Amino acid sequence: MNIKIKSSKKITIAHISSQMAPFSKTGGMADVVNALLRKQSQFGNKVIAITPGYGFIRNQNLGWKTIVKSLSVKIGEEEYSFAVKESMLFNNVKVYFICNYKLFGSHKIYGTGFDGLRFYFFNLAALQLMRHLNFAPDIMHCHCWHAGLTPNFIKKSKFFANSAAVFTIHNLIFQGPKNWWEVPPEKIDSGKKSLPGSKEKIEYINFTKRGILYADAINTVSERHAKEILTAKFGQGLEKILQKRKEDVYGIINGIDYKVHNPLIDKHIYHKYDWDSLRNKKKNKLKLQKEFGLTKDENIPMLGFSNRLSEEKGVLLLQKTIHILLKLNLQIVIISDNYGNKEYVKFFKKIARQHPDKFLIYIKKPFPEDMESKMFAASDMFLMPSSFEPCGISQMKSLRYGSIPIVHKTGGLSDTIIDFNPRKNRGNGFVFSSYNKEEFLMAIARALENYKYPKIWEYLTWRGMKESFSWKLPAKKYLALYKIAIKKRLLK
Ligand code: GLC
């Protein structure tokens, strides 16, 4: 469905999210929530955010204060109490942290073995907090499966009778505590029965399915992906229920925050630069090569990669082609955290030991944003061969840093990157259509060929850096979507 932007009536919004930059992050969703909070409050709306108070956040010096000492919610027969701490973002957005030591005290965001219980509790606690604050927002913006039960819980609530729920799918592969394809058929959650209270059953709830079934409006993070998820290829088993709700499924592309992702002001890079000082970009390459022991040569093309080392990010293609690639005159720099597949980590660490002069892998948890910036600034090309990609933010960041994206034609990558045609001087990257190693290699080969012509390459870089994928338009589209959701809620 298309979104038309009109009326500017101010509304109240609560974002419910398991991740939120700058406090907690394993992926792009954390940045998206942060950007929406800033933009929506700038537009004059009242915005709050609710997120778990993980153990590692307590160690950050946030100057947060306890605003509620003890509230509680019941799951089955058990009572779970929690405290609420508050911190301020952008001077006017209150962020509330749900603090329960047993469930969220550890340093893990996900992967505890009882994530179902943790996020079941989180949804209930967020609602309990809003009741305590006597705040029933016009919009509950629920991000991914971790907030997927909120639309279900508020369905029959009198207190939230006028609150509309928007459910955003950042990544449909994650639907709940268990991998959806591993759930035994007899344990599959139809989404239609009332929610279970027993700890064992909670771990089988499909939070995403319930988000889709009960939200007033659903969206994913690019227009193309909104169409893709209605098909069996991309629907991750939920295509049928999405098709049933297809009138309510929208696509809104993410933006990026140029106050953060900008080589002119980025404090992490060695030399700041812009499109009219590209000479300094080369200095970044030389410094990175020196610091990490790669061959020092500003003319060797450097290819970056920055993502979880997991299947869907296209790591398999990189693994299958790495030996061919490393025979060429190029360097590869991989930046990642520890959330991916351990086998890939092992594999690429071995490659790094074998080719220290041309292959670098840098892994750190939490995600090393500083090194990612250094990589964007130093590299000439950026690899994003994801098998599917709801939106993808890194390709937009890389353009701003003058690192030309090489991408698979899927989801948001397809909506933002257009294949370069040197004859017509059109396009901003190198795109391959079929997901296989031959096409991936061909796209890299085309990029390397064009790189040999400095004038062409410089113009391509310059043009990419000048493109704008700011949050202004997407943030307005979200407000328009909220109004559609509010209307639907009132009609019910
Ligand atoms: C998820 C998706 C990615 C998207 C991000 C933010 O990480 O995989 O494509 O950009 O969420 O919406």
Describe it for me?
A 9-stranded mixed β-sheet has the order 3-4-5-2-1-6-7-8-9, with helices on both faces. Strands 12-11-10-13-14-15 form a 6-stranded parallel β-sheet, with helices on both faces. The chain has 2 domains: 264 residues, Glycogen Phosphorylase B (Rossmann fold); 188 residues, Rossmann fold. The two termini are 20 Å apart. The protein is of the alpha/beta class and 492 residues long. The model has no long low-confidence stretch (mean pLDDT 95). Helix 10 crosses helix 13. It has 18 helices and 15 strands. Bound molecules: alpha-D-glucopyranose (GLC). The site of alpha-D-glucopyranose has 14 residues, from helix 1. Alpha-D-glucopyranose binds next to helix 1.
Report the helical percentage: 25-40%
* Strand order in the largest sheet: 3-4-5-2-1-6-7-8-9
Oligomer: single chain
Query: Which fold does the CATH topology of the largest domain refer to?
Result: Rossmann fold
CATH architectural group of the largest domain: 3-Layer(aba) Sandwich
Bound molecules: alpha-D-glucopyranose
CATH class placement of the largest domain: Alpha Beta
Give me the Rg, rounded: 23 Å
In what range is the share of β-strand residues? 15-25%
The shape is: globular
Count, helices? 18
Major β-sheet annotation: 9 strands, mixed
- The total of beta strands comes to 15
Q: Any idea what the CATH superfamily of the largest domain is called?
A: Glycogen Phosphorylase B
The pLDDT mean sits at 95
- Coarse structural class: alpha/beta
Distance between the termini: 20 Å
Total domains, how many?
2
Residue runs with pLDDT of under 50 for 5 or more positions: none
